[in-house]
Design brief:
Blueprint lengths: L3 E6 L2 E6 L3 E4 L5 E9 L3 H13 L4 E9 L2 E9 L11 H11 L4 E4 L4 E4 L3 E2 L5 E4 L3 E5 L7 H12 L10 H9 L5 H11 L1
Parallel strand pairs: 4-10, 6-11
Antiparallel strand pairs: 1-2, 3-4, 5-6, 7-8, 9-10
Length: about 190
């Protein structure tokens, strides 16, 4: 089992891998004050812990990606029944605001540059270095999860897709065409009842 470190931010205790604690600089020289480096992989961990602490009934997923000259973290959160959250709800705005404050900076399209954000601090004053370049917070479940499949099945049966109104059996076959696993489809059907 990997070792973990804990820190407090906004009154909530978070737990991340101990490799995030930096006690030396790039050249191995000890730092006068250790820092916590929060990268793209830690953002989903922190987001899940924040949401579970503040809104334990909400469903949450997270992933991270690396691409040329950068990285990103994507957070998905939805209501307990799998439905999309209201973009303007207090809950979603609170979640989005907290998570986006962990971003490493912003892209400035006017000048075509990336502007790095200032470091943050924990509740006890330890410096937080934010390394995720881009963070997206989505008020719905990710594609292929049971809430998304539930939405697809209902929308297909209500005729919201180009082929018009179809039966549940036809909708299931269409969903299978998206390479969705049978177990996920069965969970979605069970949640529809």
């Amino acid at each position: 089992m990997k070792s973990k470190i804990k820190f407090k931010l906004n009154g909530i205790t978070f737990e991340i891998p101990s490799t995030c604690l930096k006690t030396t600089d790039y050249w191995g020289v000890p730092l006068a004050n250790p820092t916590i480096s929060i990268g793209r992989k830690e953002i989903p961990l922190i987001a899940k812990q924040f949401i579970k602490a503040k809104y334990p009934n909400l469903l949450v997923w997270g992933k991270s990606s690396v691409f040329a000259n950068g990285n990103s973290s994507d957070i998905y959160v939805c209501n307990p029944d799998g439905s999309e959250m209201d973009w303007h709800s207090v809950e979603f705005r609170t979640i989005k605001s907290f998570i986006e404050n962990l971003r490493g900076g912003r892209y400035n399209g006017m000048e075509d540059i990336y502007e790095y954000a200032e470091w943050g601090t924990t509740d006890t004053g330890t410096a937080l270095d934010f390394g995720a370049k881009y963070i997206t917070v989505n008020p719905k479940a990710p594609f292929g999860t049971w809430p998304d499949v539930k939405r697809m099945l209902i929308d297909m049966m209500e005729g919201k897709y180009v082929w018009g109104v179809i039966t549940l059996e036809e909708a299931i076959n269409r969903v299978k065409g998206y390479s969705i696993k049978d177990a996920v489809i069965q969970k979605a059907i069970g949640e529809m009842a």
